[in-house]
Design brief:
Number of strands: 9
InterPro entries: TAT_signal
Number of domains: 2
Structural class: alpha+beta
CATH superfamily of the largest domain: Immunoglobulins
Keywords: Signal
CATH topology of the largest domain: Immunoglobulin-like
Order of helices and strands: HEEEEEEEEE
Largest sheet: 5 strands, antiparallel
Low-confidence stretches: 10-33
CATH class of the largest domain: Mainly Beta
CATH architecture of the largest domain: Sandwich
Number of helices: 1
Helix content: 10-25%
Strand content: over 45%
Shape: elongated
Length: about 150
């Protein structure tokens, strides 16, 4: 192959790629995080009498976006309504329906704000959150599971 033919072939392939990269770099949008996305509903805890209340509600959210790495989701849990329990534990079981990856993670942190950063890989993620709470004056009670779907 002559040098002239090689140069023409190279430019035929490389020029459009270089132009696309340059245009993409000039007009790239700034990255932004998705807002926290709540699970389908709060995790209700029933039958734990405390301070006149017969129920407790725990809110669980999932968030993906720029502040965390690609293919990751941040699960968070916090009391949604008073009274605030003395202690609690939340677990999230998840499956990425695109890749088949799955896992179970305990939310960690200082109660009442618990969280866990999970690498799920990109795709559609289905997750369920469940756990227990302790008001200190009654037996440990179970949170009913809640389910949510997320696009990572």
């Amino acid at each position: 192959m002559t040098a002239r033919r090689f140069a023409r072939k190279f430019l035929t392939i490389a020029a459009p790629v270089a132009a696309a990269v340059t245009v993409g770099a000039l007009f790239a949008a700034p990255a932004s995080a998705d807002p926290p996305h709540p699970f389908g509903g709060p995790a209700y805890t029933i039958g734990c009498p405390n301070q006149g209340s017969i129920a407790s509600v725990t809110a669980v959210t999932g968030q993906s976006g720029a502040p965390i790495g690609p293919g990751q989701i941040l699960f968070e849990s916090h009391p949604a309504l008073p009274p605030i329990p003395a202690a609690g534990q939340m677990t999230v079981a998840w499956v990425n329906t695109n890749t088949g990856q799955s896992g179970i993670v305990n939310l960690m942190g200082t109660y009442p704000n618990l969280s866990a950063l999970v690498t799920t890989g990109p795709g559609n993620v289905v997750a369920t959150a469940f756990g227990s709470i302790n008001f200190g004056s009654s037996p440990i009670c179970q949170d009913n599971p809640t389910i949510g779907t997320f696009v990572v």
